Amino acid sequence: MKSLGGEIPFFIAAFEANQYNEVESAIRGLKNKLDNSGVPVLELNLYDIVIGILNQELGDGEIFELEKSMDKSEFKEALRSILDINEVLTPKIKTIIDGSNARVYFLTGIGLVYPYIRSHSVLNNLQSVAKKAPTVMFFSGDYNGLSLELFGLLKDDNYYRAFNIDTYNLK
């Protein structure tokens, strides 16, 4: 949280989609190492959070029945409505953060919630709730400091407030 020039302490750790399993394993190892060193980590897995919200709103497993009854575009819009980023998802994440004593937040599961939740929307909304600790978003794709490209293929809206952790200079 030092030497960030007043910027929100968000970092993006981009990786190739075919490295997903290795990155997941590395994240678990890093969390354990930090926790054992006295640096508590809170992992915010968007997929797990979303499934929890959907099960709470619709009932366990009912999302699969809803999916069967709708075409893809209707289903995507239904998910976006249920998981409204401002009214539902961000407040849920805030509740999780507020109940934690973490000194670092890991944001994972980004690719698993595409296309109904977009990475730039999550980052923009997290700025208001993830202020107590640095956030590292593990992103399956490319981040050049200006734009996010999920899986290296799907360009998202520009996002320039996060630091690319691979190029961030620690002094």
Helix percentage: 40-55%
Strand content: 15-25%
| Multimeric state | single chain
Number of individual domains:
1
Largest sheet: 7 strands, mixed
Please, could you describe this protein's structure?
By secondary structure, the protein is α/β, with parallel strands linked by helices. It has one domain. Helices cover 41% and strands 21% of the residues. The protein contains 6 helices and 7 strands; from the N terminus they run βαβααααβαββββ. Strands 1, 2, 3, 4, 5, 6 and 7 form a 7-stranded mixed beta sheet that branches. The longest helix has 17 residues, at 20-36. The two termini are 12 Å apart.
Structure summarized in a few sentences:
41% of the residues lie in helices and 21% in strands. The protein is an alpha/beta fold and 171 residues long. Helix 5 (85-98) crosses helix 6 (119-126).
Descriptors for this entry?
alpha/beta, globular, single chain, 41% helix, 6 helices, seven-stranded mixed sheet, 171 residues
Itemize the secondary structure elements and their pairings.
Layout: E1 10-15, H1 20-36, E2 41-45, H2 46-58, H3 62-68, H4 72-82, H5 85-98, E3 104-108, H6 119-126, E4 135-143, E5 147-150, E6 154-158, E7 163-164
Parallel strand pairs: 1-4, 1-7, 2-3, 3-4
Antiparallel strand pairs: 4-5, 5-6
Helix pairs in contact: 5-6
